[in-house]
């Protein structure tokens, strides 16, 4: 019995393990291809802007300046996050095409994607904390 056979026999466990492995690879690629220090700086600026927005409720001019600064931060964060996505998009499409075929005849045929998403969210939260990825 090969790996695919084991995946079919233990579908829930295999989806969770695959999700963890894919999330690990994605997190490592993100860490490698992004400037983590700059990402952390930008997130801190955004936090400060949110606090400043709450304090400037009655000052439309100040709110406008803060919103412009937040937009600039968001655009730069998005620019940084697209780089790792560029490297992982095609492999992920192929992976999902393959995994869909593996689980089509198992008890998870219609729900494997939800198991994957749930495990991926949890894995991502844990791995980002452990690997200190912004």
CA gyration radius, whole angstroms: 20 Å
N-to-C span: 40 Å
Give the count of helical stretches: 5
- Report the biggest beta sheet as strand number plus sense, adding barrel if it closes: none
Provide the low-confidence segments as ranges: none
Percent of residues in beta strands: under 5%
Secondary structure: helix percent: over 70%
Number of E strands = 0
The best one-word shape is: elongated
SSE order: HHHHH
**Assembly status:** single chain
Number of structurally distinct domains: 1
- Let me know the average pLDDT: 91
Structural class: mainly alpha
Can you put this structure into words, describing what you see?
Helix 2 crosses helix 4. Helices cover 84% and strands 0% of the residues. The mean pLDDT is 91. It contains 5 helices and no strands. The chain has 134 residues and is an all-alpha fold. It has one domain (3-130).
Q: Can you give keywords for this protein?
A:
single chain, 134 residues, 5 helices, mainly alpha
In short:
This protein is mostly helical and 134 residues long.
Q: What is the topological layout?
A:
Layout: H1 3-9, H2 11-33, H3 36-55, H4 60-103, H5 112-130
């Amino acid at each position: 019995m090969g790996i695919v056979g084991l995946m079919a026999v233990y579908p829930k466990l295999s989806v969770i393990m695959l999700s963890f492995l894919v999330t690990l690879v994605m997190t490592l690629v993100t860490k490698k291809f992004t400037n983590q220090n700059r990402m952390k700086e930008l997130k801190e600026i955004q936090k400060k802007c949110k606090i400043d927005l709450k304090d400037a409720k009655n000052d439309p001019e100040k709110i406008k300046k803060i919103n412009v600064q937040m937009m600039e931060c968001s655009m730069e964060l998005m620019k940084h996050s697209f780089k790792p996505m560029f490297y992982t998009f095609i492999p992920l499409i192929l992976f999902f095409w393959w995994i869909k075929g593996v689980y089509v005849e198992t008890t998870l045929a219609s729900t494997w994607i939800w198991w994957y998403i749930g495990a991926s969210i949890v894995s991502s939260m844990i791995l980002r904390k452990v690997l200190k990825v912004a």
